[in-house]
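Researcher: I've got a protein sequence and the SMILES for adenosine-5'-triphosphate. Could you write out the 3D structure of the bound complex as structure tokens? I'd like something to compare against our soaking experiments later this week.
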Amino acid sequence: MVVQVNNVTKRYKQNRGVNQASFTLHNGEIIALVGANGAGKSTLIQLLIKQIKPDTGEIVWQDNEELRYMPDDLAFPEALTAEEILHLLGNLKKVSKERQHIILKEVGLFEAKELKVGQFSKGMRQRLNLAQSMMGEGSLFILDEPTNGLDPYWIAQLKKVLLHEKQNGQIVLFSTHLLSLAEEIADSVILLNDGEILATGTISSLLERENCTNLEQVWLKLTKKEGL
Ligand SMILES: Nc1ncnc2c1ncn2[C@@H]1O[C@H](COP(=O)(O)OP(=O)(O)OP(=O)(O)O)[C@@H](O)[C@H]1O
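Model: Sure. Here is the predicted complex with adenosine-5'-triphosphate in place.
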């Protein structure tokens, strides 16, 4: 499956949002969406998941439009347990109990499955958020700042999950402020700044084109933050 984003613009007040974004997403590819606070990453993600509509431009899907999504923050009912929440969502998304338990194990919440979410730490809530996004169908997997609140062990586990999804032929698109993570696991990068795509392409092509040795240098150079 391929997703094409053609000249997509979404303007909020003061012209912020996303301006004339164009790129193509391919199967079996991990794409990192990077950019400063307010650059437009979440806006672009909301456009991709059809939570908002573009003012102009279009997003064209070559195949069915099913996707899975991990928002940057997801409030769960505090009085329910992790198992109950996955069970409810599993019924909606037709995911077997066995698969629900496998996912709980993958995100390290199997032992805590009978604890109420109200007793969860921030990292545990984020892992439950990851778990809900791993359920269901769809060949586009979108994650908005998935490392938020995760400790180094769980960031390492998240990397494994994303690489595994890629091996299964998924398109994995995630936003992040961790440029080293983008460099480590992403095939390509979309660098947003003030709603504009400043650069897009494979990591190696960006490094070569900008004559830089790492993504941080590319980011500082293109966003003109060198020397700050
Ligand atoms: N619903 C909205 N109404 C008005 N302005 C908005 C809305 N959503 C986003 N914006 C503005 O659009 C711009 C891009 O915001 P967005 O949340 O997409 O950035 P981001 O790159 O995800 O930022 P961060 O790294 O801080 O999460 C910002 O200037 C923001 O204030």
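Model: The first helix runs from residue 41 to 48. The CA atoms of residues 17 and 43 lie 6 Å apart.
Researcher: Great, I'll pass this along to the crystallography team.
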